[in-house]
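Most newcomers find our protein records easier to grasp once they have seen one. The structure tokens are whole numbers drawn from a learned vocabulary of backbone shapes. The record below serves as our worked example for the rest of this section.
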Amino acid sequence: MFPENYVADFPKSDPPSKITWRPFYLRRRILGPFIILFVSLLLTIIALSQISYRNQGLATSLPGLHYLWTYGPTAILALVAAVWARVSFQAKLIAPWLRLHEKPVNVEEAFLLDYVSTFPPLVVFRSLRSRDFLVATTSTVSLILSILIVLSTGLITLSPTPVTMENTPVTLQNTFVNNSTKLQDPDALAWLTMSGLVEGILKPPEGVTRNFAYQRINASLPTTAELRTTVDALSADLDCETATIGPFTIFDFPDPVNVTLKTPTCAVDAQLEGIFDVDLIPDPLSFVSRRYVSRFVPVSCGGSADKHDQRIMMLFGLLRLSLQSVGSGANFSQHYNATTLQSAQLICKPTYNISRVDVIKNGSEVQSVSLSAQSVSRRLDKIDAWDIARGYFDSHPDVLDVWSSPPTLTVCKESLSVDTQSYVALSDSSKLQCQLDLLLKDEHLQKYMTAHYQRYTAVLAHLTIMEQASVPSIGTAVLVKSRLLVQAFAAQFMVALLASVVILSAIAFALALRSPVLERNPNTMIAQAILVVRDCHLSRASQHMKYTASQLSIKETSINSLDRTHIATLAGPDFPIKPTKPEFLDINRESIEDNRAIGVSPLTLRKSVKTVICLLVFGIITALEVTLHISNRNTGLGRVGNDAYLHYLWTTVPSTVMSLLSLYFSAVDFDVRALTAYNFLEAGAPFDLTVNLNLLDSSGPRVALKEWQIGAFSGLATTVAMFAANFLTVFTSSLFITASIPRNASSQLSTVNSFSRSDPRIFNNSDGFILPSLVLETNLSYPAFTYENLAIPGLALSLDFMTGSESGVGNWHGSSLVSNVVTSAFRTGISCELYDSSHFDIRFTPHDRGHGTLGIKIQDIFNPLNDVPSNDELFFTDIGPPAQQKGFFGLAGTPSPGLTTQYIYVWGNFDLTTSASSTFASGMSCNDTIEAVDVEVTFVGTSLDIDPSKHPVPIESTARRITPSESDLDNLSEVLAEIGDQYLHLPPIKGPSNNLDTFFSILTTSRYAQPLSALGDPTRREDVIDAIKFQHSIITAAMLSTQSRIPFNNTNATIHPSGNDPNAYNVTVTDPIGSTRVVQDATSTRILEVLLAAMLILSIISWALMPHTTLLPKPSTSIASTVALLIGGNIFACLPPNGVSMNDEELKSHFLSLGFDKFRMGWGIVKGENEGEERERLMVCAVLSEEDSMDSGLGTR
């Protein structure tokens, strides 16, 4: 074992040496930047929190880009924690040496001190108890950083968030014009619109509310966005005074009743017509009745024509009507008498203001219009309040144009005598709740009729004093975006923890080593041996630090290997270590495996613990895969409530689990690295792989490289597994994210109505033309289940899917639901025969004062219309005086019954101002066509409105012509033909020329209008033809939709190609806004699965490469543990006198010069304290290469 002539003697003294070493990471120049870094992190989190609070998030991101933000904070903190771990480790490593360096202490407090292998939280308590404040502060910072890493996973989340965007570009689509021309001669559109609103068949057009006519707004925003802006709005009002009414009597209907009303400022005379109808009197001889009378008429104060004296009279009274007999015999007569029982009458002055209103628009729907707080009222100088009031009255059609006699309205079974204005006003009787007597009070009458006037004039102003425009403006948009939010709770908690980190790191900075403390780094066995030799009091204590057989139960002994009491009582500065040549105990090979089990394995490396951890890792991988499949299948793992702290459940909890798992693998790596040198010692290895091997006090990458170089593959596997484990928390930060997920549900669309094919009675109501006229002339939407020339059977959405336990009705956005279905529909159209100018015979018949009639005859059409003034003219139109005898004409109608042609259209221009009159004319005769076609339709909302952004798309391959069927006497063609008869009932629309009928007036003024000049332009002939066909098909489809629907069970439409129309369609309903759900991120899941699988495999590899971890009876991380192994062998005896000043290569050369090229650990016999006593002891010895065998005397257990 020893070379010849070698004298094992401990050096009597060392030459003087310089103290040059101190831990690198415990220097102030290192700790100072850490303080700056911690302060920067603290300020960064505060700044991010404030930015997130003010801007509703840090930024808008996509689910695929959020990794940078979610991984970033965790990764940064993990990196900081990894670097700080070096500070904490070196503080724990140097702690016992600092105690010995600074002053003599109890050996138990220094020599046996072991912070390195102690459970981290216990380090803090033990170091505080021992007053090792540097260890306490650095270890506490490490623990806090671990907590910060966990919290950082929930610091920034990607969440659907309402974001307010100021100064959003907005376009105002119309504006008020300072011109009363249209008010002076309004058409019936306002009255039609108001009638439709009152009857509930229309929705208010955009730009109109009950109180305001306001500017329409448009912005390029998603349909889910909310837009807020301030625009101009006109609101009319009535300033009313209570009036007194004089007595009046009715004689001999229909003579008007003259009444006089007076207020303090105005007196008016008015005529009341049509108080009652004689035809309604059941028994004139005994007639006594009462009747409510309502009038809303224009009057003037004192009969003045001045606009400022014009007023509106509103009257609501309860009259007693009776017949009064006068005289007898030849002088007998009866008179109709009326007596006022009760009445309310007001004289009102119209007013109006243009104010600023705040409009809130959500998608395509206006949510609210309210007067702006900063509004300043103004008026248009060329439009007087009476101009609006006059337009209100003039827009109502004459009584006899609508009714054959003065109208009577029935409200709550009461018969009311009304004028046209009151008819519309009182038709909306829902607010009255059958309490007509309320209107007999002035305040109620004023409130009710003023509300009607405001609503009507809002429609009127929208149509007459607003024109199309494109005015740029700004608004405020509120969009739901995927925003990166800083969670307030996490930020506040992290700021508090970072503040404590700053304070603790400042304390560590104050406690940092200002000067070297040791001659060399005590991170290897040989270095510790040299330092022990240097300090005699250490060597004196360490000779009693022995690994004896008593600890391993090899044999009984009375010597305690770590007799602390004995160690503590040692004294004397010159107590020498007496090196002796050990006598090695020879151990049979068969007992080696048994003896290995005698040692104590670190807790983390015990087979039972490793088995549980491997199963746990495998279980986590399986759980991740299962939950990912559940998340993909169910579009998330669950719905998120409004609890601000709930998101920590899926961020902090998984991160805590992964952090604990990471701590375990870090501990495994530490224990394996600590045992690597002893593993080499057990087999015998050179100097660099044993007593001079340092794998603990080094950074992870350097350790991995070192392990690869020396072939310590078991340690390499655990080091790489530790690297992978450190990334677990980073990638767990985005494992579960919240996202606004569109929700899907299966439901049914039930067919509730369809169309009659054999009932010609359906078109006897001209009111059916209100809707198509308004659709064409205004921005009104198409009737329900109608789009352009398509009429779709009525459908109803089953809402059963909204009543589930998790998906209650309140969790669905009913107005945003999207349902896609393919259904059959009717498609209307016309087929036409065209005529050019050569087929026309146009004649002008002069009348008085330049007036005349333009007669139009189309050759090959012989039967004229019944009302044509000559037998050879099919159409005629009155031509005005010479100034109007040049222009355009357009006429549409139906010929006499018996012709195969259903419709005839003629149009062109004329010039009668020259001697050689010139005309251009085109025309066509047409017949209705109707097809059944399958249509792809997208419905929105529970009311199934057709999505305006996704027009119905016909599937042309399914189009099939509907023809009369002899079996069921199909009269659909007759039904459609009646539409042409109703052309005369189209509401009067004022066109750009007096020579256009209503059909062509609409053709040149509607939303799809052709310019007037196109009627006389031969090059635009095809455009006019297409426009006529399109307009007719719109009218036809609207008429079918509004007038021809009957319950589905009674219909015989047979639209479906099978002949059996389905009564229900299975559909998938989508809520595009959806709900905020927890979604498992696939990318993070796959990364975590790879990391966990790698950790599992590497753990098994390390286990296989280092199956025996019971090498030592105690942890080797204290000074006592290391020295106890060395003191029993020959290491101390072999140390050179100047070992403190020698570097590693010089020490290696020294041992080689002695012939020791390997070092081994095993059991040997040493002399005891008593004479002749021998002890068995675990020791580390330098050995000669020829003695490197199991039979050399150094046993291995």
The mean pLDDT is 76. DSSP finds 29 helices and 35 strands in the chain.
